[in-house]
Specification:
Layout (H helix, E strand, L loop, with lengths): L10 E6 L7 H14 L4 E6 L1 H4 L6 H17 L8 E4 L5 H10 L4 H5 L2 H9 L6 H15 L5 E3 L5 H18 L7 E3 L33 H9 L17 H14 L3 H8 L3 H29 L1 H30 L7
Parallel strand pairs: 1-2, 2-3, 4-5
Helix pairs in contact: 3-12, 4-7, 4-13, 7-8, 9-12, 10-12
The chain binds tryptophanyl-5'AMP.
Length: 338
């Protein structure tokens, strides 16, 4: 972490919300890439608990979910001695920079965000200001650490675009301050779809049979995949527009096995959907079982989790302060010592 400017690796930031259980979509779209990129970049992975407050949460459950997501970060193999793995709320700079960015974000930009439109339709009784300004807090998460790279699924592309625009706007008003970040999207699986409605993204807020949770038991994974919606022509061919169900299963299979679509078609076409769904289940179970075994151990070790949480929050805070000092000065906030 403490290398000189010249030899410093590029910085990577990503976050996952601790709302409910994580899905195979979160894993293929984001978490799996965190592990693949960890050695190449100087990384921060955050459990973005402040974001979770935009939807009403049960406080005790939220606390549990935060530890659950941190345990999953560690269970996929992220190394807390190498990367900073911490809770967003433990670094108050996120909220502070979020406010400053709110003040250069236009209402029109926020109104166009599809996640805001979706979530306000789903939680019509609680369309709060936090839900609206969520994207500028997300921009703050990224810009606070001068991040170069942000691995995310396709659903976060619009938010990343806003973060880039805000960085450029701030730099042009106040002078060069922020790195303008790039997104990293997986080649296959940037948008894993619902198993029951394959034209919608797989989401933890939908009914249980529409998603695979990372901690689902093997027999549940197999059952959900067998029941996944597919068309009735029985050909294993990648055609997301006309055959969204089977194409989604092919994306999942491709992401976890590394096989490309032509190889999958050559191997499974003509053998029927049943055989292919079983092969997808075998591959997903083989991928998730070792993670689940590590999760069981890590999540039971509260002392270890507490140590990771505290140590990494301190280090993240120190990094955040560097950017904040600069930002406060640029926007004209007086230093504490005049
Ligand atoms: P969240 O918590 O909804 O999802 C975490 C990550 O999982 C990806 N993802 C998917 N990828 C493929 N297919 C799917 N069906 C699928 N569902 C979710 C998301 O794209 C995301 O990468 N706003 C973010 C959290 C966040 C963040 C950040 C991310 C807050 N600050 C700064 C990056 C950088 C969110 O709600 O993700």
């Amino acid at each position: 972490m403490e290398q000189t400017q010249v030899e410093r690796k590029k910085r990577l930031f990503s976050g996952i919300q601790p709302t409910g259980t994580l899905t195979l979509g979160n894993y293929i779209g984001a978490l799996r890439n965190f592990k693949l990129l960890e050695d190449q970049y100087d990384c921060l992975f955050s459990v973005v608990d402040l974001h979770a407050l935009t939807v009403r949460q049960d406080p005790a459950q939220l606390r549990k979910n935060c530890l659950k997501v941190m345990s999953l970060f560690l269970a996929v193999g992220l190394d807390p001695d190498k990367s900073l793995i911490y809770f967003q709320s433990h670094v108050s700079g996120h909220a502070e920079l979020g406010w400053i960015l709110d003040c250069i974000t236009y209402m029109g930009e926020l109104s166009r965000m599809t996640q805001f439109k979706d979530k306000s339709a789903r939680h019509a009784d609680n369309i709060n200001a936090g839900l609206f300004t969520y994207p500028s807090l997300m921009a703050a998460d990224i810009l606070l650490y001068q991040s170069d790279m942000v691995p995310i699924g396709a659903d976060q592309k619009q938010h990343l675009e806003l973060a880039r625009n805000l960085a450029e706007r701030f730099n042009s008003v106040y002078g060069e301050t922020f790195v303008v970040p790039d997104g990293y999207f997986p080649k296959v699986g940037a948008r894993i779809m619902s198993l029951q409605e394959p034209t919608r993204k797989m989401s933890k807020s939908d009914p249980e049979d529409t998603y695979i949770a990372l901690l689902d038991e093997p027999n549940i994974i197999r059952k959900k995949l067998r029941r996944a919606q597919t068309d009735c022509d029985n050909s294993v061919v990648f055609d997301p527009e006309n055959k969204p169900g089977i194409s989604n299963l092919m994306s999942i299979f491709s992401a976890v096995t590394g096989k490309n679509m032509d190889e999958i078609t050559a191997e499974y076409d003509g053998r029927g959907y049943g055989a292919f769904k079983d092969a997808v289940a075998d591959a997903v179970i083989a991928e998730l079982e070792p993670i689940q075994a590590r999760y069981a151990k890590i999540s039971a070790d509260k002392a270890y989790l507490a140590e990771v949480m505290t140590k990494n929050a301190e280090r993240a805070n120190a990094l955040a302060q560097r950017t904040l000092l600069k930002v406060r000065r640029k926007v004209g906030l007086a230093a504490l010592k005049l």
